[in-house]
Amino acid sequence: MTQAPPRRTVRATDTGPIVLSGLRAAWEPLAKQALVTALIVGAAAASTLLPMWLTVTDATAMWTGAGLAVVLLGLTALMARSTRLARVEILVPLLDFVAIGLLRFGTGESRSVFLAIIILPVIWIAAGHGRWRVAVPLIGTVVTLLLPLLLAPGRVFPASEGVRLVIVVVTFGAAAAVVNELSRRSLLQLTAAQRSRRVAEAEVSQAAIVQRSLQPVDGNGLPSAIRVAGTCVPARSVGGDFYDWYPTPDGGMGFTLGDVMGKGVGAGMIAAAVRAVIRSSLGEPDPALAFRSTSAGLSTGSVDMVSAQFTTCFHGRISLDGSLRWVDAGHGLTLVRRAAGGSEFLRSAHLPLGVGSGWTSVETDLQPGDSVISVSDGVLDLFGGDLASLDRWQAFVDAREDVDRLVSDVTALAERGDRADDVTVVAVTWGGASKA
């Protein structure tokens, strides 16, 4: 008896999306500041190049604002690479208010057409978490509008400018409040979605553990004349394929390979149910009775449990004298490799579980050293997935006399890249009648 090769553990979680999300969060401030900088520098350049349409009242202040925006752009680039600097991200939009105020002062103050740029740092700050992010943009807006009083002391502040200040602060304040509330609700929804995802991942992970625990690990307990190996490499954490082997009361062994249509937890639940009912029939000498019991056990009345997800399955019993009694429910992917050379597929016209009924078993004699190899259709995908893949698979089997090597090589092929379907194989070699 040989031990089955180790099965690949598929984790329910994937760190890839988390890493990508972190990278996006790190570079978002740079993208925001790039837009603000482009608008401020573009406004200064347009005012310089189009004096007939745009006013320049203080070129020094105007270009100082543009230069400050460029400096802030460089600072955000450093923040994207430094966690320590990223902690003071809010300073960038706050200083943008100053840059916009300088631009406004240099392009006509109240007559400037560039005040609308101020909405960008307002949204930037308000979109964060916390109600204080509504008040901060208002302070920045006031700074932008009152900056001329600092740059030109003694200047009379007209009443119209006061009205403008009130209207702008109220308008942008309302915008900040709306953005902040939407951000808060989005954060709550995201938190709830993440919590649900963690619960679902934990459940899938537990289901994968349970499914793996139901698969036999080695041939302990089987007759010494029988060698067995098997593996299942699921396409997801939980697969729809299953395999099983166990000793039978007559001193022989039984083995099963099934493939439930579909993948994921639903298919895994049906696979576990089918496996359990078939194994419970180990005392019946006719393996076809196991399929009849399974079909009856999964029937729910008006709608069968497996009617939407039928199961193809192969089930065989090997007695001590080398007699193989088998039944195939629409599977058709089991072959006998002869020790003398060559192999042949075990063909059956029966339909899958959940579709057909009235299965009957067939008897095939094994010679010492003959092997029975059954696989799921995911194995054929490793050999092209076309009609010729059956021939390539058969040649692959014929070239490997040892079942351990066969299963190990199939596992290596399956783990070489992504799989669209579960890959499962079980191989049994009968070595001859055991001695009493």
UniProtKB/TrEMBL annotation:
Keyword set, alphabetical order: Hydrolase, Membrane, Transmembrane, Transmembrane helix
Domain of life: Bacteria
Transmembrane parts of this sequence: 34-54, 60-78, 85-105, 111-127, 134-151, 163-182
Any one GO molecular function term: phosphatase activity
Cited InterPro entries: Bact_Sigma-Reg, PPM-type-like_dom_sf, PPM-type_phosphatase-like_dom
Domain PPM-type phosphatase as annotated: residue spans: 223-430
SMART domains: PP2C_SIG (SM00331)
Identification of the protein by name: PPM-type phosphatase domain-containing protein
Species of origin: Curtobacterium luteum
Lineage: Bacteria, Bacillati, Actinomycetota, Actinomycetes, Micrococcales
